[in-house]
Design the sequence.
């Protein structure tokens, strides 16, 4: 039996969405973020990391989005609908690249941006101008330039392909959904420069499984 | 023809090491970090992200450590020496988990720690106490607790297993090498609490392929 522990408005939305795409039976428990915007302590009982997603598989708790996706596809995607076959080289490469890139390259920058935003918000009024200046320095030297280059790579991929792994929707799209939504937060991505990326977001949101996931676990809005 | 663009003292050491384990022919170009501790601009000609590693495969540049590892294993690990077979479920799960966990969960915390260290070092003397206080706040609220939980998971895995994927060395060990070296930087990990992890580091460093990689691309010392 599969049991997903889902933190609302977090990366774990992806696993909920994938479970809906797979049309498998699963139990769902939803958690709300605490005041520090983190997973609540109750998740610690499920896995010591106290992060979401946690997927219980026959009472064994597994974590790490990329691994959970690969695990679910190996055991439940019997018709190979959501991962390109090994002999479809170009699609296999794209799938594997974006699956890793989402969490290893894009998300760390976006999380760092979030941490600096929280640092500024928590700073006492007197030192806030200094913490703002530090945030600006890191944003300009580490985050903005790298993120722009990554977004350009994403936009190019979707200019040439309907989905991240090529012509077919795959779990790489599910994995990429969170960083793209996070990068589109606040003022939002430029509608002309990232037209293909924003159209892809719409295509994701139109899927029946996506809508069922949203209805059960809430939408993502950073 | 494979051509590795290796930034000395960086994550790209792993790909160099894997190429040596695979005993394939490849060309190697080494780069030094610039004064800002980043990859030099000359890497931008190879790939727009200007990050290392970059592997050129027949003049096509591929990036992202986890993807490069999977690509090399698919095409060059013909005897399946460095990745557990699909039907070896426990080892396959461990391999896949640690391959993702290294870059998606551990490294982002260590990179954030590095960024805050640089922020403090670059701060003008007058505001340095404030940037130190901010670093301390993030270290205590975001980095230290999470990293300790992750190191505990690693230590437990190596208490029960010789290598990260079980009894056989695999590319998951190569992928995990960088975050463990980075976590061991500075004062170093507690020699009693992390005895198995530190013994595993030694076992990695004793491998012939590791020594050849070090001789060609320099050692890792954060």
Sequence:
């Amino acid at each position: 039996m599969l049991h997903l522990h889902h933190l609302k408005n977090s990366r774990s939305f992806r696993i909920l969405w994938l479970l809906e795409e797979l049309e498998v039976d699963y139990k769902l428990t939803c958690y709300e973020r605490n005041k520090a915007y983190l997973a609540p302590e109750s998740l610690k009982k499920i896995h010591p990391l106290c992060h979401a997603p946690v997927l219980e598989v026959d009472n064994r708790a597994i974590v790490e989005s990329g691994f959970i996706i690969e695990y679910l596809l190996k055991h439940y995607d019997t018709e190979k609908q959501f991962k390109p076959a090994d002999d479809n080289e170009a699609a296999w490469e794209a799938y594997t690249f974006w699956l890793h890139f989402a969490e290893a390259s894009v998300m760390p920058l976006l999380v760092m941006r979030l941490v600096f935003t929280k640092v500024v918000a928590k700073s006492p009024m007197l030192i806030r101008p200094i913490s703002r200046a530090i945030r600006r320095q890191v944003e300009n030297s580490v985050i903005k330039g790298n993120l722009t280059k990554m977004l350009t790579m994403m936009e190019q991929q979707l200019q040439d392909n309907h989905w991240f792994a090529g012509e077919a929707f795959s779990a790489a799209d599910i994995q990429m959904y969170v960083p793209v939504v996070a990068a589109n937060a606040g003022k939002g991505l430029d509608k002309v420069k990232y037209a293909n990326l924003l159209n892809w977001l719409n295509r994701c949101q139109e899927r029946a499984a996506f809508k069922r996931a949203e209805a059960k676990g809430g939408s993502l809005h950073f």
